[in-house]
Write a structure and sequence with these properties.
The complex is a heterodimer of chains A (252) and B (425).
Chain A: E1 7-17, E2 25-34, E3 38-42, H1 49-56, E4 64-69, E5 72-73, H2 79-83, E6 86-89, H3 101-111, H4 116-129, H5 145-157, E7 163-167, H6 175-190, E8 194-198, H7 202-208, E9 211-216, E10 219-225, H8 226-232, H9 238-246
Parallel strand pairs in A: 3-8, 3-9, 6-7, 7-8
Antiparallel strand pairs in A: 1-2, 1-4, 4-5, 9-10
Helix pairs in contact in A: 3-4
Chain B: H1 2-16, H2 19-50, E1 52-58, H3 63-75, E2 78-83, H4 89-98, E3 103-107, H5 111-130, E4 147-150, H6 156-187, H7 193-201, H8 222-236, H9 239-252, H10 254-259, H11 265-294, H12 309-333, H13 337-354, H14 366-372, H15 376-388, H16 394-421
Parallel strand pairs in B: 1-2, 1-3
Antiparallel strand pairs in B: 3-4
Helix pairs in contact in B: 1-11, 2-8, 3-6, 5-6, 8-11, 8-15, 9-12, 9-13, 11-12, 12-13, 12-15, 12-16, 15-16
The chains are: A alpha/beta (252), B mainly alpha (425).
Amino acid sequence: MAVTVPLAIDIENMGFKHPGNTDVSFVNLNLKVEKGSRFGLFGPNGAGKTTLISLMTGLLTANEGHIKLLGHEMGRQNVNSINKLFGFVPQDFSFYQEMSPVENLEFFGAWAGLDKKTIKRRTDELLTILGLEAVRDKQVQKFSGGMKRRVNLAIGVIHDPEIIFLDEPTVGVDVQTGHAIITYLHELNKKGTTLIYTSHQLSEAEDLCQQVALIDAGKIIAQDSLDKLLKVHCQETLEHLFLNLTGKDYRN
Amino acid sequence: MFKLWATIVKDVRVLLRDKVGITLMFVMPIILVVVVTSIQNSTFQLVNKNKLPVLICNSDTGQASLQLIKTINKIGMFKVALVNSDNNESLMADAMHNNDALLGIIIPSNFSAKVEAKSKNIAGKALTSFGLQTDTVKKVGDVDPITIYYNPVLQESLRLSVAGGIRSALQLVESRETLRSLYFSINEKPLPEELENEMLNNKAAINEIPVSKDGTHTTPNASQHNVPAWTIFAMFFVIMSLGGSVVREKVSGSFIRLKTLPTNYWVGILSKQITYLGVTMVQAAVIFSMGIWLFPYIGLPALNIPSDVFALLVVTLACGWCAVSYAICVGVFAETQEQCNGFGAVSIVILASIGGLMVPSFAMTGFAKDIANLSPMHWCLQAYYTLFLEGGKLRDVLNNIIPLIIITIILQLIIFWGLKRKNLI
């Protein structure tokens, strides 16, 4: 008897076209991500990674097909109940630079639906884990890029979501900060959190991701466990696999 | 409720750390109120207390010109100084520059003789008409005109009132001469001075009473006119901070992140409205307090708060809500902070101009008057004037508050449409 693995993300025959923009579109796209996995989504610039993440987080709405998050269908069920399930760590520093890490976490924690007590507990936990305790009350605008990345991550996980979408969470940081962020993501995953990760730093991705999907021109061109894909395509690294499947031409 | 409270706390924190925004919202309007009120008050004092400096060049040697100068002096509007400019325009211009005079008057050389001849002529005509004289009255030429030079900085309304004052002085001199001629022709002796004064100076008095809705007769001053007007301007200036804050949220990606959280963005919009409505209330309180307590210390007339304080609160709230809605509306549609600040500042000046803050709307005609109705500042100003100048009550300003609220609701609908169109809610 086959064991059914619960899915964190289930995309079926999804179609999407940007209104007034023909650059990226999806036709009959299918993607399944197992619950509790570390999933990497890779592709060249303009391939459609950010658009796909926007569709999975409800920032954009699919024209056709279904997108389900932990069995809840996007666009059908109450947005607020679905939004509680996931956390989003965008590539931009999407927070208030005039405020301190504590003030940012207080605000975003409230918007994530947490009560005052939980916000305080999670804020203390996260600032300690991410090494921001010493600067907890200082304005973020005076922080280094690496510190800002950690604040960005802390805000995305304040409500302890079951799925976390990470859009290049380590871009522009030093080796130490990159290592600390990846280590923390591993810890979250051990507790059962599903990670949906996208980055251009493929060596880092090799360490983090169990499952990967390569996307190009709005199509998923390969999807499986990283080991299997390397074996099937006779490649040694994810970078070689990436170049082999997407080519070496410049992308805009 | 906790989400709304947390958002208000966030907005207050962001606002308090925006030093430039706070300066633009509080310091600039305060400076503007003080400066404009001082200027208008000094114009008022110039006319009513300090008197307009006027140079008179009397090229005439007769009595009528001396009488004219004496009468001009008696009007009380002018500080008269006599100069010799030889009836020459450029010499008079130089004399005006050198003496800081705003007006220069040249009395022509044959003024007295011509006034006397004209008076005798009129007296003769009168006697003929009464049947007391049979001689034919000869025709005489007109009196040469008196020339008034004025500094172009003198506003037209002030210039017209100056011309009116001088015309009435001239009329008095001519009447005096005519009366003297008439009296002499009948009685063959000069008109007694006592009788002359009684006949010429015994004019009916004019009472000037400001009309108010509450029956009080407080004379409006520069503060009553300017403080409410520039308070409205200050309230709409929240666009510099609020509009910019909306744009910053969009540009930084905070909007996008907030959209992925289980809270409707209207909580964010509501929070901004509450926070900045509070700011507009503080602005009004600060500016009104300055008018009441600070102005007398710096030589300006004190602001009198309307008797219906509740109506003042309602009008200020309606005005503040409209200002906040306008700022959010511009912030939603602007792509960058530069666009928001540039358009915001220029549009507020335009709305203030067409709304009657710079040129009184009662002085506008036709199309300009219709356009004024489109400016929310017009309705705010009318409501404030009804309270501050006319002593009106809440029921008197309802016809101003209703259009203001309609404009605000339209702005709210545009905000909703803009956020929806940009996929932000």
